[in-house]
């Protein structure tokens, strides 16, 4: 497992270099990449690499809430 928490200056739907790295570590080494969902309370659909849809390389995305289940 590789745990990551990265950010962009705004929405970034595609980051080819990072997506290529996720694909490589997943396929070549069998590593499970884990990314945080972010702190902006925005949909992860708008952010790479957490929005990757390739079934084999799709990273695990985690989020957190407070005790009241608010973001």
Q: Would you count the extended β strands for me?
A: 3
Termini separation comes to 25 Å
Supply the helix-strand structural class. alpha/beta
The portion of residues assigned to helices is: 10-25%
Encode the helix/strand succession as letters: EHEE
> Can you summarize the main beta sheet?
3 strands, parallel
Whole-number mean pLDDT: 82
Shape: globular
Attribute tags:
1 helix, 20% helix, single chain, alpha/beta, 71 residues
SSE layout and pairing:
Layout lengths: L1 E3 L11 H14 L3 E4 L23 E3 L9
Parallel strand pairs: 1-2, 2-3
Short summary of the structure?
The chain is α/β, with parallel strands linked by helices.
Verbal overview:
20% of the residues lie in helices and 14% in strands. It contains 1 helix and 3 strands, in the order E-H-E-E. The chain has one helix spanning 16-29; strands at residues 2-4, 33-36, 60-62. It has a 3-stranded parallel β-sheet with strand order 1-2-3.
